[in-house]
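Subject: design request, 181 residues
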């Protein structure tokens, strides 16, 4: 009589063994970048808040102590002019922000993925799993789905999407990818 495998034995047989290996890394940031030393001036100008001098001084101190060198984001001054609610205090702006984010995040993902694929040196057809994380823009189907389509990945590629994980998103998505492997 054949013995039944335990759940633990089955799960262990399905998992990769040993330490995780990062085969390649690709990064992408929006083209609109502002040096941190100029950020307070930019922010208070585009939000039409330059009259708030004491608050701007405080904001400048925060910027100086943050250790951030530059900020990159999709919003341009033209976009802010087209959609003034984005920069207006308490004005409804979530819908337009969501539209911008959900369109742009997959494009950044594609840019980063193509760089990683080039570094990896293997064809897209060898991709079996796609783990995607972002701190911005929730929608269904999500950015992982759009990215898979932008890259022309086979529909059988297993995908997972993590939203709003904050600063520890990278570790979380890497751990998830290892568990999937």
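Subject: RE: design request

Done. Sequence follows.
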């Amino acid at each position: 009589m054949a013995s039944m495998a335990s759940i633990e034995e089955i799960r262990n047989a399905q998992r990769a063994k040993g330490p995780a290996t990062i085969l390649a890394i690709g990064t992408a940031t929006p083209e609109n970048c502002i040096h941190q030393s100029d950020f307070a001036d930019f922010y208070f100008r585009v939000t039409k808040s330059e009259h708030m001098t004491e608050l701007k001084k405080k904001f400048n101190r925060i910027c100086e102590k943050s250790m951030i060198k530059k900020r990159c984001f999709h919003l341009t001054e033209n976009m802010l002019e087209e959609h003034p609610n984005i920069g207006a205090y308490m004005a409804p702006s979530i819908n337009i922000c969501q539209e911008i984010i959900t369109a742009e995040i997959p494009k950044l993902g594609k840019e980063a993925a193509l760089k990683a694929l080039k570094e990896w040196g293997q064809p897209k057809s060898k991709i079996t799993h796609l783990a995607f994380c972002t701190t911005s823009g929730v929608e269904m189907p999500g950015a992982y789905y759009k990215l898979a389509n932008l890259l022309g990945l086979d529909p059988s590629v297993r995908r997972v999407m993590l939203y709003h994980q904050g600063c520890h998103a990278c570790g979380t998505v890497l751990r998830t990818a290892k568990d999937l492997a």
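The first strand starts at residue 33 and ends at 35.
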